[in-house]
């Protein structure tokens, strides 16, 4: 059993040019909470109150605002909605919409969709009180209800946008949702095949990282053996590039500390090129503080694959090939992320406070590439002292170096673990940035509330 009364349904939400259009955003949320997919149509006037971007991000469907627009697959957008919706709800509905529909006039994408559909229709008017009471409006409402069978959720009494009081306010949103549920009833789902519905899209992201400085390390470091040869790894930089791209699109200022890469980095990112682990460490240390001593970045995402070992000595000239082979003496490279975490927190290797912590404290994210098991990931998170550790099994198909997908587990310092399914690296990036954005907002809120 499920409490979702609209589970599996596609509901078309038409929004017309009333000042109550902003309430349609919350109505969309309520319909989705009932299990519905929601496809949104906006009249031209409605787009002046609430932009398509908001509805697209929340619905994950293309927003229909142009009667002539085609979907990416070439289908006519509003016709696809008309043919696949289980119900259409128009909220808020203006007097203009009521008059157009009562007379069968298709002047925008909302009226055209309603005219082209056999789905039940629910209309929730909102307008000035005198407009609602006008005989023409009342006649149009009566025709829609009595002749066309539309469900009418009449407006409520209260203060109106004009400053006057009267009947004209959009009805309470739960009442509109109840009317949609009643209109659908127990009828079969009209278009259970997803291919018949409007396509799902990766919705545009809010600019929730605007004003933030995100540093991303990407690619694999190389440790020189001689001027020709090096010790390296299989990292291509795809994960780091995906994180940088996603952060830019969410409004962040992005600096990429780029080791060896096989992919392009996004335009708009500041790029610092490095080769060795020592160069990577030096670049990150320079970024840690601003000239005034405050934090140089809000978050560091250490997606680079850092070489764990380097030759004890590097030859100045190319080593000659010898028949007896070549023996290299290796030493561990510095654990760059663990060092940065101690600097940020002002602690020593034993966790004791020995210096001034960096303020406001940056959020630190590490990556751990494992093979066969992720058992060591939790220990690595504690040893490195980061806020999050993203671990993956690079031996798993589709989750290793050079792939466009990744299956990761996100571990938190508090002991939480979130095992994600196989996703594109861009999807992984956004899941990770969701957490970073929330953590930074919480950090800033705590700082405000703790001020005397």
Would you kindly provide a written description of the structure presented here, covering whatever features stand out?
The radius of gyration is 29 Å and the shape is elongated. The strands form six sheets. Strands 12-11-8-13-16-17-19-20 form an eight-stranded mixed β-sheet, with helices on both faces. Strands 2-1-3-4-5 form a five-stranded parallel β-sheet, with helices on both faces. It has a two-stranded antiparallel ribbon with strand order 6-7. α1 links the parallel β1 (10-15) and β2. Helices cover 31% and strands 20% of the residues. It has 452 residues and is of the alpha/beta class. The protein folds into two domains: 10-196, Flavin prenyltransferase-like (Rossmann fold), CATH 3.40.50; 213-449, CoaB-like (Rossmann fold, 3-Layer(aba) Sandwich).
Major sheet strand order: 12-11-8-13-16-17-19-20
Tally of extended strands?
Answer: 21
Distance between the termini: 51 Å
CATH second-level architecture of the largest domain: 3-Layer(aba) Sandwich
Rg computed from alpha carbons, rounded to a whole number of angstroms: 29 Å
The level-1 CATH class of the largest domain = Alpha Beta
Shape: elongated
Integer count of domains: 2
Largest sheet: 8 strands, mixed
Name the beta content range. 15-25%
CATH superfamily of the largest domain: CoaB-like
Q: Kindly state the percentage of residues in helix.
A: 25-40%
Number of helices: 13
As an assembly, this protein is: single chain
- Coarse structural class: alpha/beta
List keywords for this structure.
single chain, 452 residues, alpha/beta, Rossmann fold, 2 domains, eight-stranded mixed β-sheet, five-stranded parallel β-sheet, 13 helices, elongated
